[in-house]
Amino acid sequence: MMDLQRLFIRFALALLLLTVIAGVLASFAFLFPANFNTILPFHELRPVHASAALFWIITGAACCVSYFSGRQSKAFMVLWMLTIVVIFVNYGFQNYGGREYWEFPAYLNLPLLAAWLFFMAVFMKRLPKGAPVYYWMWTTGILFFLITFLEQNLWHIPWFRQSFLREVTIQWKANGSMVGAWNQMINGLSVYLLVAISGNAGLARQKKPWFLFFLGLFNLMFNWGHHVYNVPNSNWMRGVAYGVSMTEWVIIILIIRDFRHTLTAARKFRHLVVYRFISAAELWVAANLLLALMMSIPAINRYTHGTHITVAHAMGTTIGINTMLLLAAFGYILDVDNLADRTRKWLQISIRVNTLSLGIFWVSLIIAGLVKGILTVDHPENSFFEVMAAVRPYLEAFTAAGLGVMIALGVICVIYLKHSQRKQTV
């Protein structure tokens, strides 16, 4: 592994550490503003947490795709890392701009765009003949990230800013579709890992993965409709969104279950840690599928939109699915299953602690969202103070569980960072 690639891996893991630390601090700042407002107020911690999470997912996916495909762009890695560092330096000086999730000065989108174009130029130079399905997942994910990134920046054109409704609709649509783009890349990584661990290249050429690819592509193009239920739009958008929303996760579950049944005991033991990450992701795929289907029903979305249930869905997907699959991919790259028994035991314990803590974290947010939604929609006479007073106990439980998530993921990151210093990897 070249030194720059190793640095890129460490950079991605550092973003994950920043995500969980800033997230826990933001939770405490929200609950106890009097203690944090003079040091690290919530309004300063939130963009750091949101941007770190966003960049962890995108950087982690791009890093693993680059490594597994053997198509690494030095220009992309250097420019991408430098720009993100500058973004957080701007946050440190309270210099903001942009839009939701991209709250840094808008001009920094230009080097991000240039970096991604370098990545695309190297990756898409030539698609291997008879490429397996995960190559097509990576290719479409990379392409549609570019499209949604450009769409997310349409607000720079004055015509889009002339109408608040128009701009909000485009922003929500673009951010929803962008999730589908990086899901394509991460789904491709999951299929690649299943092939690599099982030794069965045929898994990437079966009908189910190809169906998953086309369904995932259809999802990222059309299931964004449920993100804009609360703004005026055509009913056909809601219908399409409800019909296709999150159906790709069902296929992922089937693929992983089929894979589990075909593994021999020896192979499962050899790749135990990586397999545990994949299994943890499977659990959260099922949980978030159920939640997403419920949220996609317009009558229920009326209560859930903009509440802590939306946060629960985002966190469950980001931590439970995307982060677990990315840590599985990084674990395979770093060959963590050949670490000392004691180290592997710490990784396995951390996975369990993360799953349990995230479960409490997730349920607390759902209950908080239900309470807030009902008190706000059905009882508009309630003041905001009264609503938040009723929600607070569940937010306290969520914050306590967040500490468990931070510790578990922190231990995993530290082990990975330490192990990444080794010169030889798989």
TrEMBL record:
GO terms for cellular component: membrane. The chain crosses the membrane at residues 50-68, 75-94, 106-124, 133-150, 185-203, 210-229, 235-256, 277-300, 312-334, 355-377, 397-417. It comes from the Bacteria. Keywords: Membrane, Transmembrane, Transmembrane helix. One of its GO terms (molecular function) is cytochrome-c oxidase activity. It holds the Pfam family COX1. One of its GO terms (biological process) is aerobic respiration. This is Cytochrome C oxidase subunit I. The lineage of its organism: Bacteria, Pseudomonadati, Bacteroidota, Chitinophagia, Chitinophagales.
